Amino acid sequence: MTAARLRWLGLADYEPTWRAMQRLVDARDAATRDEIWFLEHPPVYTLGMNAALSHVLAPGEIPVVQIDRGGQVTYHGPGQLVVYPLLDLSRLGLGVRALVEAIERALVVTLAGWGIGAHGRRDAPGVYVGARKIASVGLRIRRGCCYHGLALNVAMDLEPFRRINPCGYAGLEMTQVSDLGGPSDVGAVADALAPRLLASLGLEADAQSATRTWLQAVRSP
C-alpha cells in the first residue's frame, strides 16, 4: 500500500497555501510522496475557474479570490475543516470520478460515526444531510496529480454562506457537524476523518504522520 504524509497545518492563510500546493505539483516527480494537508482558513470566498461572479451577492469585508479549481463559489472560515489531498492519481490508478467518490465516501462514513446520515450527489459534488450541504468538494488535476480538495463545516459561523449562492445554487442551505450532534473541535474531526480518507483512497500514513499537532497560529506551509 502506498504511504502518504499527513500534514497538520492549523489555521493557515489561503493564498500562500494555494501557492504552496501549486509549487508541490510543479516540482513533483514519480518518486515524490503523496501528501494530505489538514487545516483551517481565515474568512475567504474562493471562485473556481469557470465561476460566475454573479453568485457572489454581498461579500462585504471578506476577500474574494479567483483560483484554479473546478466549481463555483464557496466560503472558508475558522471552524471549517479543509483537507487538501496532493496525490499522484496515475500512480494510484484513480480517475477523477473515483477520486471524488472516495472523498465523499470517507466523509459519509465519518459522519455516520456521530449518527449523522449523509450522502453524496452525482449531479452536484459534495456531501449533504437531507437537502442541506455539509461538505464541498472542488479539485484541480494537473500533470496527472490533484490538489485543492474538500471543506467540511464543523463549528463555524454559517452566515457568510448567505452572502453567496453556494456552489452556484441560489438558496442552498448549509449545515455543520456541531449542529447535528457531532463534535465542535476541528482537530477532533480531523483525527476521525484522516484514517477513513486514507482507507478510501487506498493509502496509509507514513511514519512522520503519526503525531498530530493542531496549530492554532496563522501560518503557511
**SS-based class:** alpha/beta
Residue fraction in strands? 25-35%
> What is the succession of H and E elements?
EHEEEEEHHEEEEHE
What is the overall shape? Answer: globular
CATH superfamily annotation: Bira Bifunctional Protein, Domain 2
Q: How many helix segments?
A: 4
Radius of gyration: 16 Å
Helix % is 10-25%
Q: What's the number of extended β-strand segments?
A: 11
N/C terminus separation: 26 Å
Largest beta-sheet details: 8 strands, mixed
CATH class: Alpha Beta
Rounded average pLDDT = 92
Strand order of the largest sheet: 7-8-9-10-6-2-1-11
> How many domain regions?
1
- At CATH's second level, what is the architecture? 2-Layer Sandwich
CATH topology: BirA Bifunctional Protein, domain 2
Poorly predicted runs of 5 or more residues: 214-221
Could you give a short description of this structure?
This protein is α/β, with parallel strands linked by helices and 221 residues long. It contains four helices and eleven strands, in the order E-H-E-E-E-E-E-H-H-E-E-E-E-H-E. Strand 9 and strand 10 form a beta hairpin.
